[in-house]
Amino acid sequence: MNRNKAKAMTDNIWNKIRETGLLGDHPVRMLDSTDSTNSVAMQMLGSGALAGTLVIAETQANGRGRLQRSWFSPPGTGLYLSMIMRPKLAPFDLPKIPLAAGVAVCRAIEEETGLQPGLKWPNDLLLDGRKFGGILCESEGAVTSGQIGVILGIGINVSTPLESFPSDLVSKMTSLTAHSGRFFQRGQILARIVPAIDKMITRLEQSDWTGILREWKARDAIKGKKMTWLTPEGEKVIGTSLGPDSEGVLYIKDDNGTTHRVLSGDVSLII
Length: 271
Known about the structure:
This protein has 271 residues and is an alpha+beta fold. It folds into two domains: 216 residues, BirA Bifunctional Protein, domain 2; 44 residues, SH3 type barrels (Roll). Helices cover 29% and strands 28% of the residues. The chain contains seven helices and 15 strands. An eight-stranded mixed beta sheet has the order 1-2-3-4-10-7-6-5. A five-stranded antiparallel beta sheet has the order 14-13-12-11-15, with no helix packed on it. The mean pLDDT is 90.
């Protein structure tokens, strides 16, 4: 038995969740394998699952990120989870959820590990410029009882070794263990993240977006840095990130001095 497997067996929080189906007052559906926790959670939402329900998988065959990208989800080394939510928010405030969740996840990981994660607009979690996690919010077709249903998906590379990443991702990705040289229990990370998200979404519902955005900007890992933006129309813009505005929308100033408002598309750091 290798060292990581032996340590995983002693992850008391993770094992307790598997036994009880609960994390605090959150019902948990724990899966050995699935295509995507977001897909399972969306189906459960449509069937009336309780808000706060978590779907967690040991591995995903087709984990999803933004822009229909796949999320590499090897078994036993990462957190692959989705939370069913029915936030008390207006539809136009829903795009603020992934930014708020990003702050919550960063705070939780910092408290548990001592590491200092940064954020890349709109939903990437970084350590020294390398991605170790991402957030995907989906709400299409999920309206129940007049309240919008949201699936908040989170993927985090906890102990994923660098050599296990596909060759095209090795230079861009990392994990908490690969970055720090220390092993972390998935259950402990999870037990920090979930209540942190609960508190952050409550703040968002209580109209503390200004305070949340202030914290997001303090963790902005790309402001002032050179980057490319591939627009939805396929146009490539090269410029400098100006950071998000008061609504969380990113602005980029290109090399000709023109400022662009980035509502969607692919944003990449130039390293």
